[in-house]
Design brief:
21% helix, 28% strand, alpha/beta, binds zinc ion, 7-stranded mixed β-sheet, 261 residues
């Protein structure tokens, strides 16, 4: 991906398949971040709206919240649009399903923002100065609709400056695996080829992020492809109906336990 450095998410050592950005895990301990994956003996499907029994999926979500150390997870029905919701601290714990949206932002600790993906790009943006975080679900329709730009706008409205933002393009289908029709090239404003050609969606998003004001050296992209590996992940193109969940949230704040003398 032009303009973004490649990093390989590593296993987080969770009791379920879960990968984290290795540099952020090292440098930003106040940030909960990462993505679920498959494992050898189970698909580890995380979708709330699919065929896996709800009880199994909810147990997995509870394990995810527990490992992240945040009491409340926020998810939405995703519609490949550009709507971004700004979330405030919640007194509820457990799982909150928001109205239709493809992006989430918060400046409040305790909320684990989540998106569901299997080939589409999970985009995480972190303001390391103000400690604000965004997570976006960006397939080609969402990218064309402007989800990346709407996410950056939401952070700027919340008080961020672009110089403080770091962006990561997570595991997604790669530029070798993602052949798309002419209408997709046209929708993304690319030159329209004579026949179907692959596109590098993460490269396109990196270019859009640069145009939105994020510095190239503040961007990273995952080495992992959902379709061709090397880490086992769910791929819609490969025929999977299962989904992995990418997460971002802020630790600490009121939810943190304190010892009284
Ligand atoms: Zn690939």
């Amino acid at each position: 991906v032009a303009g973004a450095r490649t990093v390989a998410e590593r296993d987080a050592g969770a009791p379920f398949p879960f990968l984290v950005h290795p540099e952020w895990a090292e440098q930003l301990p106040w940030l909960a971040q990462g993505i679920t994956a498959r494992n050898a003996d189970s698909e580890y499907d995380m979708t709330l709206f699919g065929g896996t029994p709800a009880r199994t999926v909810h147990e997995r979500w509870a394990a995810l919240r527990q490992f992240a150390g945040l009491p409340t997870a926020v998810h939405a029905r995703q519609v490949h649009g550009a709507r971004v919701i700004i979330h405030r601290r919640s007194i509820d714990s457990g799982l909150i399903i928001a109205d239709r949206a493809d992006g989430h932002v918060t400046a409040d600790a305790g909320l684990l923002l989540t998106v569901s993906v299997a080939d589409c790009v999970p985009v995480t943006i972190v303001d390391v100065a103000r400690r604000t975080v965004a997570i976006l679900h960006a397939g080609w329709r969402g990218a064309a609709a402007g989800i990346l730009e709407r996410g950056v706008d939401a952070l700027v409205h919340a008080g961020s400056t672009c110089a403080d933002l770091r962006l990561h393009l997570g595991p997604a289908i790669c530029g070798a695996c993602y052949e798309v029709g002419l209408e997709v090239h046209a929708a993304l404003g690319l030159p329209v080829p004579p026949s179907a050609r692959p596109i590098d969606l993460r490269g396109i998003l990196a270019a859009r992020a640069a145009a939105a004001g994020i510095a190239a050296d503040a961007m990273t992209t995952s080495a992992h492809c959902t379709r061709c590996g090397p880490v086992p992940l769910h791929s819609h193109r490969a025929g999977s109906a299962a989904r992995q969940i990418a997460v971002a949230g802020l630790r600490g704040g009121a939810a943190e336990s304190v010892e009284h003398p």
